[in-house]
């Protein structure tokens, strides 16, 4: 490497006085100055260094660096493809050097000052570092040809590499044709400025073939672009500049003959090639040497470039002003130009119409070209032409006025020409404004143009834009002349996961519709990563999209999440989960069944790997149809399972892999002990071998082969259930940090362009660092800065940036809180819990690469300061979970796991359900709730008829002696409660109606009924010697067929009743006492109750739930008790989104023992292990329960225990149904519904 400093410098507007050795300083200090350096030949420049002007206050603080081969068509050097400006100096003496990440190969360099010392002027000393560059160049004029035929030995090489550089002004043309075996070939074509690679199978076809790869954009900018095509067997890599794509090709393309002459002659390449190499063989040099391996025609060995001066409108305030021509007085006016832009709108040209006292506007609107003529008499003429003109390609426009006829032509297409009869009267005094106009000289009602203009001509005379740049012609503002600075921000696209990229001049946007992702770059998934996360948000069973790797490459998938009380199952269907019959046939020896899953291969594999346990049912029902036959003989049947294409398995459900056995063989209980499967006994009666496959390495089942089906009277049926998994290894992975100086360390975070970090934490401390990763200058950090604030901070080279989320509630409350941070090239955002995300946009042209090199610290920092104290759980970086528990086991001051989940998730347990702590998570104990389900939210209800009743009997805690001996009063106190809580829901149209009766052995009772007026009554009798106490509501017509919920609470002598779902007014209670009231009860009891009851509960006892779901000897059901949904027709179910299925009517089997085939359709089988729960939800939705009441009278605290013998049945309120009920025995209490 050599320093290039003694070079010819073209310095614009030198200060004439003063020594040149002091440095360069222009006469004027503005942004239109530059310093141009001619290196005399093409040089590889690797670094630049600047210093302030000697002995002065003149230095640059920022500048742009341009390069060119010809002194025209300049190109701006950009660091990281985005940042254009270089930081300069802070004083006149210090040297600031910048090494170029990608060396520049050019003859000319130009430095353009942007900012300088405000106390001085523009001034600098410049040094350029680089080395000599040599190359072989060939020029093609559109009719040139070149063919290279490798030697036979080389053509069979397993690795082939073709590399070259090209430059052109044409946006289309064939660069390369590589012929393989037969008619197979590869075509590399430039089309609309993009490089396309095709696989062509028929050379005679007019088609270019199948598109394999599309790379690059704006490659017709007359600058050098590098291309490399690499083949390793059938793997093909194409690299354009610094972007690479890979594709697989057929074996016929395993060796090539290389042509630069295309098959389609109308797409010849017109431009220059440099350093065309095939496996390090210089093909251009072979042409120069007249080698027999090459055939060439019309090639020259230099690169002649046409000069085309472009103008860049960098912002909407720029304009180019040109004077009119004297020839316009003849009446012929012609304006031609070419433009390219990404914007949908912008002013291209405007000028005043002096005779009409108006203005003409030629502008883009909604990607079309429009002409508007506005005059004082308010006449407007609007003409449309062209479409989709914001595609970044060069488009030509010709405006012509002659003989009262005005026409506009776009892209020389007569079909895109618009005409109007308005003449243009322009003179040499007229002024034309391109792209915009200064406010004081013209009015611009449209947005200014952002893009490039070139080949501007007036009446066929080209406009010398270099004269404009030197202020010798016209005027301009906010322009970059002699360059087109257009950038394709969508190539390569920063939109992830299939997001569609669109752009304007200054930015790009990602359309994430239908991708399953969101955010500025479609980086973050919309869905949870597993069913466990949905459950811990309070969701019930149903269909959900899960994204197993978050922001990773695996797509979201639709699964069924079965939220049971103790586990959360993910259920993945395939195309046949039914029990399928197989008929014997002499024409076939085997039957094959293939199973296609609703999830893709990588989705299935990820679910299985991340789960603690997976299972799949495999069943075979047989009659004279053998399965394996013997251990030593060839098996009749087998199945294929496992990842990828799977492997053949020779064990059956419930047996060990490789055992050639079924479940009965493992348990030693087969029908015939000489065989290891029931079906191998070959009995002429139905048998089955069924079980679960639980070895994850063999799942899922992909295909099944059944043999022994050709014999007469052979019958069989098989079933392969859905894949079911539970237990997520990632969601509960946690670590507890109990020292401020402790931390966990992991490899460096990989997230140069996009990174997302998510985790949960809980703590009682007000501050601490969750995560930190450092680089030389860059860093990324997330911390709890106070008890109500989380801060996400980072630096990618543009200076530190902070994103903060402040909460209205404390975050150190020892409950789980979620944090998600994301940083991409467009923005940085931070979300805490379910609060709105706070976002901060990235600079439009700032540095975008996050460069880190240290270890990633979790729970602390490298300096061991401000460490986090508490728990961190489910930490994921770019969708990958870090194993905190594994690291914590070997790290002092950090413990694996973190208890205490009920403090955060206990709220999900509803209806008196109790949260139970587990090592990994929690569960809801519904044993004392009148509801069931994962969160005790499924209503348990039933429909009653007039003949239906339920009796629930509970013995007292202490047995009473049959001889009637007295018990101590202290023991009586223990078995008598001071109060009770009773709740139930009902829906009926019957009035009067008995809802609930609760009685004890001591002739005490509570009765809940609807009287003949439709009012609710509660009748208490707390002692046989006392009268009945009645609480009656004034709410009318509760027998209205709507759902009502009643809650009764008694504490000693205070009783409250509440009807919480009644739409009418509150209760007005009346208390009365009368013995005559009891005489009505036998009549009410004889009427029974017709309607629906649900949610019946007494303290912690739910007798009707036991009757429906857990029947035992304490429950006596009389009549028909039908499960139903009380709430289905009265109010919206908060879990109505849950997917439910019902069973089809099952036909009776004609053959005893024969399995029911196709009784359960595939959609019913979808819910797998919870089929019974879903059936009852569909048929009855919610169950009804009766709650027992133990009553106690304060005045009996010190009395002796009553006689253990009950009185006659006629005194029992429901004696009319005595025959259908068990008579309560001694020491019992009884519920009756």
Automatic annotation (TrEMBL):
It is found in: Membrane. Residues 136-303, 309-484, 733-898, 959-1126 form the Laminin G domain. Pfam families: EGF, F5_F8_type_C, Laminin_G_2. Signal peptide: none annotated. Residues 1201-1233 are annotated as: Disordered. SUPFAM superfamilies: Concanavalin A-like lectins/glucanases, EGF/Laminin, Fibrinogen C-terminal domain-like, Galactose-binding domain-like. It is a single-pass type I membrane protein. Keywords: Disulfide bond, EGF-like domain, Membrane, Repeat, Signal, Transmembrane, Transmembrane helix. Residues 1-131 form the F5/8 type C domain. Disulfide bonds join 871-898. The chain crosses the membrane at residues 1165-1189. One of its GO terms (cellular component) is membrane. Residues 522-574 form the Fibrinogen C-terminal domain. Residues 486-523, 899-937 form the EGF-like domain. Residues 1214-1226 have a biased composition (Polar residues). Its main location: membrane. InterPro entries: ConA-like_dom_sf (IPR013320), EGF (IPR000742), FA58C (IPR000421), Fibrinogen-like_C (IPR036056), Fibrinogen_a/b/g_C_dom (IPR002181), Galactose-bd-like_sf (IPR008979), Laminin_G (IPR001791), Neurexin-related_CASP (IPR050372). It comes from the Eukaryota. SMART domains: EGF (SM00181), FA58C (SM00231), LamG (SM00282). Belongs to the neurexin family. This is Contactin associated protein family member 3. It comes from Nothobranchius furzeri. The lineage of its organism: Eukaryota, Metazoa, Chordata, Craniata, Vertebrata. The gene is LOC107392963.
């Amino acid at each position: 490497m050599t320093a290039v400093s003694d070079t010819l410098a073209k310095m614009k507007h030198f200060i004439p006085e003063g020594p040149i050795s002091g440095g360069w300083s222009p006469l004027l200090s503005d942004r239109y100055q530059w310093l141009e350096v001619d290196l005399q030949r093409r040089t590889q420049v690797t670094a630049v260094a600047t210093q302030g002007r000697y002995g002065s206050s003149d230095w640059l603080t920022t500048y742009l660096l341009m390069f060119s081969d010809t002194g025209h068509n300049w190109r701006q050097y950009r660091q990281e493809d985005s940042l254009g400006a270089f930081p300069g100096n802070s004083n006149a003496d210090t040297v600031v050097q910048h090494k170029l990440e990608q060396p520049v190969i050019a003859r000319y360099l130009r430095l353009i000052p942007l900012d300088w010392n405000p106390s001085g002027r523009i001034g600098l000393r410049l040094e350029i570092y680089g080395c000599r560059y040599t190359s072989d160049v060939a020029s093609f004029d559109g009719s040139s040809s070149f063919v290279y035929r490798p030697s036979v030995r080389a053509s069979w090489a397993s690795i082939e590499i073709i590399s070259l550089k090209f430059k052109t002004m044409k946006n289309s043309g064939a660069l390369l044709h590589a012929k393989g075996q037969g008619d197979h070939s590869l075509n590399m074509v430039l089309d609309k400025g993009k490089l396309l690679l095709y696989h062509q199978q028929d050379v005679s076809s007019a088609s270019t073939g199948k598109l394999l790869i599309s790379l690059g954009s704006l490659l017709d900018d007359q600058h050098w672009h590098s291309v490399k095509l690499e083949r390793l067997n059938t793997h093909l890599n194409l690299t354009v500049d610094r972007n690479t794509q890979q594709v697989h090709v057929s074996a016929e393309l395993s060796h090539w003959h290389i042509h630069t002459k295309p098959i389609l002659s109308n797409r010849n390449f017109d431009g220059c090639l440099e350093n065309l190499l095939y496996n390090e063989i210089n093909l251009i040099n072979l042409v120069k040497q007249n080698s027999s391996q090459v055939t060439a025609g019309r090639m020259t060995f230099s690169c002649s470039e046409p000069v085309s001066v472009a103008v860049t409108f960098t912002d909407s305030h720029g304009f180019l002003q040109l004077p009119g021509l004297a020839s316009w007085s003849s009446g012929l006016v012609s304006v031609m130009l070419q433009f390219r832009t990404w914007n949908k709108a912008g002013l291209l040209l405007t000028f005043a119409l002096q005779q009409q006292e108006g203005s003409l506007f030629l502008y883009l609107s909604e990607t079309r070209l429009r002409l508007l003529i506005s005059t004082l008499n308010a006449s407007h003429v609007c003409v449309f032409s062209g479409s989709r003109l914001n595609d970044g390609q060069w488009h030509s426009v010709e405006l012509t006025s002659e003989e009262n006829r005005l026409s506009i032509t776009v892209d020389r297409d007569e079909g895109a020409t618009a005409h109007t009869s308005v003449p243009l009267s322009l003179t040499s005094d007229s002024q034309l404004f391109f792209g915009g106009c200064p406010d004081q000289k013209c009015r611009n009602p449209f947005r200014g143009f952002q893009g490039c203009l070139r080949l501007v001509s007036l009446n066929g005379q080209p406009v010398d834009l270099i004269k404009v740049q030197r202020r010798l012609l016209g005027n301009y503002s906010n322009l970059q002349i002699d360059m087109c600075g257009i950038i394709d921000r969508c190539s390569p696209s920063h939109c992830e996961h299939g997001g569609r990229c669109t752009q304007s001049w200054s930015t790009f946007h990602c359309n994430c519709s239908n991708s399953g992702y969101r955010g500025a770059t479609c980086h973050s998934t919309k869905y949870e990563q597993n069913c466990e996360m949905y459950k811990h948000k309070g969701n019930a069973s149903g269909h959900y999209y899960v994204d197993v790797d978050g922001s990773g490459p695996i797509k979201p998938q639709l699964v069924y999440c079965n939220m049971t009380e103790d586990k959360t199952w993910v259920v993945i269907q395939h195309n046949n989960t039914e029990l399928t019959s197989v008929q014997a046939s002499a024409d076939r020896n085997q039957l094959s069944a293939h199973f296609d899953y609703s999830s893709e291969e990588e989705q299935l594999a990820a679910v299985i790997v991340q789960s603690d346990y997976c299972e799949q049912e495999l069943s075979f029902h047989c009659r004279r149809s053998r399965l394996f036959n013997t251990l030593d003989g060839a098996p009749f049947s087998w199945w294929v399972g496992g990842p990828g294409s799977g492997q053949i398995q020779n064990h059956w459900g419930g047996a060990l892999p490789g055992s050639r056995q079924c479940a009965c063989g493992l348990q030693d209980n087969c029908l015939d002990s000489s065989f290891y499967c029931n079906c191998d006994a070959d009995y002429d009666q139905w048998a089955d071998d069924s079980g679960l496959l639980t070895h994850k390495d063999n799942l899922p089942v992909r295909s099944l082969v059944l043999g022994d089906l050709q014999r007469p009277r052979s019958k069989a049926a098989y079933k392969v259930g859905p894949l079911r998994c539970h237990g997520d290894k990632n969601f509960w992975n946690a670590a507890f940090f109990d020292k401020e100086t402790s931390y966990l360390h992991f490899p460096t975070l990989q997230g140069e362009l996009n990174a997302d970090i998510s985790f949960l934490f809980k703590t009682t401390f007000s501050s601490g660092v969750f995560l930190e990763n450092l680089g030389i200058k860059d860093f990324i950090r997330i911390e709890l800065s106070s008890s109500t604030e989380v801060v996400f901070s980072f630096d990618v080279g543009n200076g530190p940036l902070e994103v903060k989320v402040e909460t209205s509630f404390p975050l150190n409350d020892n409950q789980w809180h979620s944090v998600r941070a994301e940083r991409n090239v467009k923005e940085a955002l931070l979300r805490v819990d379910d609060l709105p995300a706070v976002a901060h946009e990235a600079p439009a042209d700032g540095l975008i690469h996050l460069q880190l090199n240290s270890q990633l610290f979790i729970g602390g920092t490298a300096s061991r300061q401000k460490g986090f104290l508490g728990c961190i759980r489910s930490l994921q970086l770019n969708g990958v979970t870090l194993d905190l528990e594994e690291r914590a086991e070997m790290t002092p001051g950090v413990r694996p796991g973190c208890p205490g989940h009920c403090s955060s998730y206990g709220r999900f347990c509803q209806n008196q359900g109790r949260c139970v702590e587990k090592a990994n998570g929690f569960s809801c104990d519904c044993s004392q709730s009148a509801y069931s389900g994962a969160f005790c939210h499924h209503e348990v209800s039933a429909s009653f008829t007039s003949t239906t009743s339920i009796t629930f009997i509970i013995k007292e805690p202490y047995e009473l002696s049959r001889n009637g001996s007295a018990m101590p009063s202290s023991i009586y106190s223990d078995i008598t409660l001071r109060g009770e809580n009773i709740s139930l829901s009902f829906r009926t149209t019957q009035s009067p109606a008995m809802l609930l009766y609760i009685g004890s052995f001591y002739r005490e009772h509570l009765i809940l009924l609807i009287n003949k007026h439709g009012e609710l009554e509660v009748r208490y009798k707390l002692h046989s010697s006392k009268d009945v106490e009645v609480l009656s509501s004034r709410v009318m017509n509760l027998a209205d067929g709507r759902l009502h919920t009643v809650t009764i609470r008694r504490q000693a002598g205070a009783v409250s009743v509440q009807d919480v779902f009644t739409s009418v007014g509150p209760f007005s209670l009346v208390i009365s006492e009368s013995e005559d009231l009891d005489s009505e009860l036998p009549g009410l009891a004889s009427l029974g109750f017709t309607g629906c009851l649900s949610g019946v509960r007494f303290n912690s006892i739910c007798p009707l739930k036991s009757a429906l779901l857990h029947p035992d000897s304490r429950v006596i059901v009389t009549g028909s008790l039908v499960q139903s949904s009380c709430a289905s027709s009265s109010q919206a179910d908060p879990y109505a989104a849950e997917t439910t299925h019902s069973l089809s009517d099952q036909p009776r089997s004609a053959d005893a023992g024969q399995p029911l085939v196709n009784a359960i359709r595939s959609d019913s089988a979808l819910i797998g292990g919870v089929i019974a729960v879903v059936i009852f939800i569909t048929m009855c939705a919610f169950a009804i329960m009766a709650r027992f009441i133990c009553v106690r009278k304060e005045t009996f605290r010190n009395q002796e225990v009553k006689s253990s013998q009950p009185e006659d049945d006629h005194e029992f309120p429901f004696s009319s149904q005595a025959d259908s009920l068990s008579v309560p025995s001694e020491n019992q209490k009884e519920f009756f519904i």
